[in-house]
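User: Structure tokens for both sequences below?

Assistant:
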Amino acid sequence: MYPTTEFFTYTVPLGLAAHSRAEQLRRRQSNAGKAKQVYLNSLAVCAVQLYLQWHGFETDWEHSDSYNPAMSTLMDVGDLIIPNYGKLECRPVLPNAGVVSIPEEVWSDRIGFVCVQLHESLREATVLGFVEEITTKDLPLNELQSLDEFILYLNQLQQPASIKQPTQLNQWFQNIIEADWETLETLLASPEPQLEFNFRRRQKESVERGKLLKLEQAGERIVLFVRLTHTDDSEIDVSVEVLPAESQIELPQNLQLIILDETEKPVMQAEAGSSESLEFQFSCEPGERFSVKLVLGKAIVTELFAI
């Protein structure tokens, strides 16, 4: 039996939109058996898509193989792309089944396998759990990991995606700045004492920008503010500060700001408590790299920088 009593599962309604999409894909198949397979796979993908959207994850089904009539004809596939993460395989589980069938043709190029039990009426589906890897075609449902572990696993996968593209801070002095790094006036639309304080500290040889970061799992938005200042020698002074976004006065109480060195070893760390901001100041030489990690519960955002 699947472990509904051991850990959290998630039941979603399969409404008209889900069935219309599944029917649209089913009609592209001429073989009755293949058409039924595509229909059930599509409902499983719909259920996982709803679950992920509820948790704030973007999905891209339209570019997944399971949405492609040719690929669906050639393969028993129920993949769903999560941009910047990879592909999930969504597998339907029939009512009262104790195992889920996962064909070998979809074992590779997947970040995980999510199992979805379809109810008899097909009006609801329950997202049961997941596994990171598969080594057998028939997977017992009692071997699934919980959905809590699934979300934590996805959040851990987010780090490599952000590490691939460090922000080149040395280019800021030439006014070459990525579009998502904005002035603080833009990020914090209304003038506040915090904003005025930061402006007074501005120096002529400094350049500063802020970025709005979304801690999806915690439902919070934080402004990451970075200021660079040339020194008399070759070093650059760096200030990293986090501020509440929008109308918030204080940072989330359990928010952690962590600075990591090039080896990803934490070198500075602080927790917000009831603070209005957190700030670290340090110096770097050209060529050095560091990371800024924000942690709030299971929500983790990491930004990599190169000097």
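Moving on to the next sequence.
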Amino acid sequence: MTLFLGLGIAGIALLVLSLIFDGILEGLFGGALGGFFDGLLSLPVIAGFLSMLGFGGAIVLGTTGLGTVAAIVAGGLAGIVAALLTWKFSRVLMRDQTDATPRGDDLVGTSGSVVTAIPADGYGEVLLRLGGQTVKFAAKSSTPVERGTEIWVEAALSTTSVVVRPVER
């Protein structure tokens, strides 16, 4: 019983260490066996296996009269299930990534409207949609553009200014 409880506690301690030293085993076995160790033998997965082996074995040994072999088998099966669930859950979390940050070049080819008139070869202001948000940019045009005119972005001069032309319909 003490050995099983020790394994369970060791698994919990390993899980705490995995929070501090995340990615060490993946770094040691990086690329071995065609990526077999990518996540499958990570510290959280091993900690899950070890904890369930220990605590599952202790529960079977303490609550039934089946003996040590049955406790090892039951704890081992519970450990395998816990390890697989931990591996699958960590893979799902690792895939949960956000979209790329929008950049000024993403504005080229979009349309918007003029909020402050643009003089010929001077600067005015336009409203454009960037990353789902309406953003005001300084705008330059080769021809004068009146307020409220629909414009087309031809180039991004900087992170806050663009070159535009009126939309012709």
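User: Anything stand out in the second?

Assistant: The mean pLDDT is 85.
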